[in-house]
Amino acid sequence: MLLQMLILLAMAKLQEHVYEESSRAWQWAAAYAAVVAVLSLLAGGSLVGTLIGAALWGLYAWGYFALLRQVTDQLLLWLLVMVGGAVLPLLLVLKAMGAE
User: Where are the transmembrane segments (predicted)?
Assistant: First the structure.
């Protein structure tokens, strides 16, 4: 989970400042979903679970990257969205684990 957060943060920074002109948010989200799928398969996940998880992570990343592009002009809000968007899935998982 922490590796996925670090990859999400790295890809957010890359898509925002390095390749902003030549790519779209959905392309970065698809690349992130592919990375998550490979990591899940390497960790021994089932194929169906990997595909479902990658699809959900891809949709989340698409919204995350698109939102980051919307707040590019406001540095403080951009930093809040960048860090908060990467930490939110971890907090949701921890809350779900504690609820059981």
Answer: 30-63, 75-94
As given in the structure block, the two tokens for residue 98 are 């504690």
Contact 54, 34 (CB under 8 A): yes
The token duo for 60 is 């989340």
Residue 27 tokens read as 């392309």
Residues ≥6 apart with Cβ < 8 Å to 11: 28, 31, 32, 61, 65
Q: How many CB atoms lie within 10 A of CB 26?
A: 14
First vs last Cα of the chain: how many Å apart? 19
- Quick check: 14 and 31 in contact, CB under 8 A? no
Q: What is the pLDDT of residues 14-62, one digit of tens each?
A: 887 776 678 889 999 999 999 999 999 999 989 999 999 999 999 999 9
Backbone Cα Rg of the chain: 14
Q: Which residue has the tokens 């939102």?
A: 67
